[in-house]
Amino acid sequence: MSVVPRAKPVFRLRSWVRKTLQRRVKLKRALVVFAGVLVLVAWMFYSLGSAMQQSQMISEIAKQGVEIPADFQAQLDAALKSLRDGKADKALGQLIVLERENSSVSSLTYLVALAAMQSGDSDKALTKANESIAKRERVSDSLALKAVLETQKNSSSFGDPRVRAESYLRQAMLADEASSSPCIELASLMRYRGRHEEAKQFLEAARSRLNPVDSHAVVDTSLALLNLQFLPDGELPADINPDKDVASLFSAAYVAMRKGDFARAADILRKGRDRLPPDLYYYLVNDPAMRKFVSRPEVAEFFQ
Q1: What average pLDDT does range 30-59 have in this prediction?
Q2: Closest by alpha carbon to 250, among 226, 223, 284, 215?
Q3: Other C-beta atoms within 10 Å of 197: how many?
Q4: CA 277 to chain centre
Q5: In the predicted model, what is the mean pLDDT of the chain?
Q6: Predicted pLDDT of residue 85
Q7: How many Å apart are CA 112 and CA 91, to the nearest integer?
Q8: Do residues 189 and 152 make contact, with C-beta atoms less than 8 angstroms apart?
Q9: Measured in Å, how far apart are the chain's first and last C-alpha atoms?
Q10: Percent of the chain having pLDDT more than 70?
Q11: How confident is the model at residue 110 (pLDDT cuts 50, 70, 90)?
Q12: DSSP state of 7
């Protein structure tokens, strides 16, 4: 008599397979849910970061709309002129008052630090440079200022001030990769330390970051032409030496054209075109005062 196998073990096997599959499905669902949660959390952090960045940007833009006294700009200009003229103590006092009364205006803290350094108050300069960095204002310039303060320290102080200065300048480069100033200062520091190849590399880096025109030459020339532009013909100076500097060159050419001596003007402009970098020459020759003579055939070629 044969024995028919019972179906129970088969049933148990099928039940075990079904439960295993169900557990796998649940696990997959859990993984999908977990992944979704991760994506949601990542999106929340991203949104939070974007919101914080936007808030910071709005805060910076809002500074442009702060209320300031009517004479603020004149007072600031006077303080900066004092600083430029070597009257650092006077400038420092003026800037401290301006910063205290207009704390929302950007860069004033850095300017106090700069004036303090030039007046010999290293402690105040360092404090204000750190405050400027904490405000995220003129970070690169403030780091460069701290580097200069380090180089002024006695070499017998703790550690090597030149090493700390180099560190600050490298941080300054990272804080503003578009600025040439940290590169120039690093090049100077490298030269003092005898690292001439590195100095050359930093100077090359600085050259690639320079503005396409010389800011000093532009401002000096523009001011000179502006002053000449509104003088009567009889009061125009007759003894401007075009070889003195860039401003004098364009001033002499302008005076010659005003007086109708276009042959002399052409000779002066030819010298300028030959001597100056093209971007600087063409920027200056197209000054509003100079452009009045662009249609004159004797000098037209020098405007193109």
Answers
A1: 48
A2: 284
A3: 8
A4: 23
A5: 80
A6: 82
A7: 8
A8: no
A9: 118
A10: 76
A11: very high
A12: S
List the structure tokens of 213: 């025109």
Question: Of 290, 292, 260, 259, nearest to 272 (Cα)?
Answer: 290
Which ranges constitute the DSSP H helices of the chain? 8-62, 72-84, 88-101, 108-118, 122-134, 139-151, 161-175, 181-192, 196-209, 215-229, 246-258, 262-275, 278-285, 288-291
Least Cα distance to 140 among 107, 188, 92 occurs for: 107
Do the Cβ atoms of 287 and 303 come closer than 8 Å? no
- The pair of structure tokens assigned to 10 is 């088969």
- Using CA atoms, how far apart are residues 10 and 13, in angstroms rounded to an integer? 5
Tokens at 157, concatenated: 């102080």
Q: What gap in Å lies between CA 265 and CA 252, rounded to an integer?
A: 8
Cα–Cα nearest to 262, from 225, 223, 292, 220: 292
How many Å apart are CA 40 and CA 51, to the nearest integer? 16
Helix segments in 63-121, DSSP class H? 72-84, 88-101, 108-118
| Cβ atoms of residues 290 and 269 within 8 Å | no
Residue predicted with more confidence, 216 or 23 = 216
Residue 292, token pair as written in the block: 């009045």
The pLDDT tens digits for 163-196 are 888 888 889 889 888 888 888 888 888 888 888 8
Question: Across residues 22-36, what is the average pLDDT?
Answer: 56
97/118 Cα distance (integer angstroms)? 17
pLDDT at 270 over 90: yes
The model carries a pTM of: 0.62
Assess whether pLDDT exceeds 80 at residue 115.
Answer: yes
Give me 286's structure tokens.
Answer: 């197209």
